[in-house]
Amino acid sequence: MDKNAIVVNRLIDRYGYYAYWVKLNKSMRCECVNPSTKEPDKECKHCLGTGYYITVRRLFLASREGKEYESDRAQSFAVTPKIMYTKGFVEFDKDDIIIDSESVYTVYTFQHIRGKEGNLSYTKVIAPDLKLNRAQFLKLFKELINEHLPNRR
Ligand SMILES: [Zn+2]
Asked: Measured on CA atoms in the order 137, 143, 148, 153, is the torsion positive or negative?
C-alpha cells in the first residue's frame, strides 16, 4: 500500500486539476422542499435542486475511467464510474456531487488510504454519473458560481 500511495500522489501532482465539490448537508433540508410531497424544487438556486443545504468547495484531484470490476456488484451503474483521487483524508458523504468541467458525478463510495508517511495519504472516490438532470444542474451551478465567485479565472 505504501508504494501505491507514492504512485497515486505523483499522479495527482502530474495530472491533477481543479473540480468543484458540492457537499450536501443532509441534516438540513432546503426551504424549497415541499412539506407534503418531500420533493425539492428542481430549479432552486440555493440547493441546486438537491433539497439539502450545500457547501461548494474547490477540489484538486486526478481521475480516470473506472473498470467494470471496480463497480460494486450490488449497484448497477449505467456506465462504469469515474475513479477520483485527492490528497489527504477528505470527508465526502455519499451523494455529494463533483463537477468536473461539463461532467457531473455523484459520490457513491470513498476510501481513505494511509501512506507510509502521513502526508502521502489519499482518498479514492468512486463516482458514477449524476442521478439528477445534468443540464439543469449545471445551469444552476454555473449561475451560483458566477454570482458568488465573480473573480474566478
Ligand atoms: Zn432548494
From this structure: positive
- Which class is domain 3-146? mainly beta
Burial level of 11, CB count in 10 A (0-12/13-18/19+)?
Answer: middle
The pLDDT assigned to 35 comes to 93
Give residue 20 CA to ligand 1 midpoint distance, Å. Answer: 19
Q: Tell me how far the alpha carbon of residue 43 lies from the centroid of ligand 1, in angstroms.
A: 8
Residue 31 CA to ligand 1 centre (angstroms): 6
- What is the mean pLDDT, run by run of 10 residues, along the chain of 153 residues? 81 97 96 95 94 96 81 60 94 95 93 84 92 88 83 54
Prediction pTM value: 0.87
**Residue 132 confidence (pLDDT):** 75
